[in-house]
Amino acid sequence: MRLLLFLSLLSTVHSLKFLAYSTQFARSHSNFIARLSDVLVESGHEVTLLAPVLAKSIGGPFAKKAKVISVPQCEEARVVDDFLNRVSANIWVMKHSVQMIKEKKQLNAIKGHACLSVIDTPGLSDSLKAEKFDAAFSESADLCGPILFHLLGIDKWAATESVAIRDGFEITQTPSNPAYVPTLMAGVGEAMTFCERLSNSFSFIATQFMISTVYSGIESAVRERLPRLPPVKEILATNSLVFLNSEPLVDFPKPSSARIIDIGGITVTEEGYNPLNETWSSILDLRPKTILLSFGSMARAFTMPEEYKRTIIETFKKFPDVTFIWKYEERAHHISFGVPNLIESTWVPQNDLLHDDRLSAFITHCGQGSTSESIDAGIPVIVIPILADQLRNSHQVERNGIGIRLEKGDLAKEGRLEEAIKEILTNDGYREKARKVQQMVADRPFPMKEIFVRNMEFLGKHGPLRQLDHYGRHLNFFQYYLIDVISFVLIFISAILSFLFIITRFALRRIFRSKAKQE
Ligand SMILES: *[C@@H]1O[C@H](CO)[C@@H](O)[C@H](O)[C@H]1NC(C)=O
């Protein structure tokens, strides 16, 4: 009887083997892939997470359940941690995220070397090949993953993007429309003025350019060793599915296709939250209201301009009945010195705090992770995006009425932050909307976890899913935009019109001439 039960379980839960790839460079990206890996393990599958370390300081890989193979930081990557510290200060004052291109050039070559160090790790390729993985996944911008899948002969793979949108036909095979869909790094909403559409279009092209520099940096390093590697765009196009970290109930609607699957917020709901411990709980009991302030892991708070810090501190002093908790990474600065209602901490149990009813609001940089956590917790937010997709997310927040959007430059202006705090504390509308969105997302007909797991299982079983490929990717620029067809039609119409014009002129002349003769 027991044996039968065991056998029937085996036949229904057919365990698959997945390979995940995640270069340890930015916390949010590593976190996303690690959680996806763990989600598959929770559903009874085996996952090996291959994680080359580019930056030691981020502290990854973060997988708790998947098997992790960590490739140590290569010689060339020694400078990356210092580099990130420098960038962390720069991004506070950067005007446009596209300026990152300059910063990133050196880094892309290093990423190439890191990729080679993975390929060259003795015995690694052979042991991975021997695992006979059913399918694999990686972020597309983490190009080394797809290259490695190609080298290992894994043709069933999915691009799992930690951001809400990924433009780029070679990856999505789906049209993008910058006329109304805010692109990844544009600081615009969906209802754009002419100037905003101009800026969104510029951003669209610049982002494509930026990503192509990442590709070419990695590619040129790898191609030296492997000259017969197919063009990178060809390798990327072999993905079968593209998972986006987008919650369609909150995000800007966009053109999509069967190969694009939204799984936004999956990492948050799966992670869950815990009640606060005594220390944190007593902090929330200090005053009638409490506000949490965190700028995430990329833009470290202690590297912001002094002017911004002064504004924040002076603003906090104006709300003596509110306790402010600030995630501030440098204890030696004594940032809370002389400010009785400010609690500083190098680390905060963010998700646990957000879910506590005593927290009134969250001031956030609006990274994808923090935005999802706020939505999951139904907490009103004040968003101060620093760079990249945070700007886009901040407009999502505004669109849904769940918070107030400021610009980082507002931290240099007196009164802006103060007004926002006053508004968020006194206007119940934000809390109501946040709760409404929270409930809606919680009640979605199919949980994101199920959507991800079932699709990965399907890919493992039936992939590669070349049926889902769009033929459009074989067309050239003129064909794709129908420029040849439109030109043909225009030429045809003008030919007919010219013909009619000539005939009419000819006929009229004859008529006039004969009339003249008669006279
Ligand atoms: C609560 O957690 C914090 C870390 O966030 C820790 O520093 C503190 O000691 C904990 N307090 C108790 C009472 O366990």
TrEMBL record:
Major localization class: membrane
PROSITE patterns in the record: UDPGT
Enzyme Commission number(s) of this protein: 2.4.1.17
Alphabetic keyword roster: Glycosyltransferase, Membrane, Signal, Transferase, Transmembrane, Transmembrane helix
InterPro entries: UDP-glycosyltransferase, UDP_glucos_trans, UDP_glycos_trans_CS
Alphabetized GO MF terms: glucuronosyltransferase activity
Broad EC category: transferase
Record field: catalytic activity: glucuronate acceptor + UDP-alpha-D-glucuronate = acceptor beta-D-glucuronoside + UDP + H(+)
Transmembrane annotation, as ranges: 480-508
Bilayer topology term: Single-pass membrane protein
Subcellular location(s) of the protein: Membrane
Cellular component terms (Gene Ontology): membrane
Signal peptide per UniProt: 1-15
Entries under CDD domains matching the protein: GT1_Gtf-like
Family affiliation: Belongs to the UDP-glycosyltransferase family.
Descriptive protein name: UDP-glucuronosyltransferase
Species annotation: Pristionchus mayeri
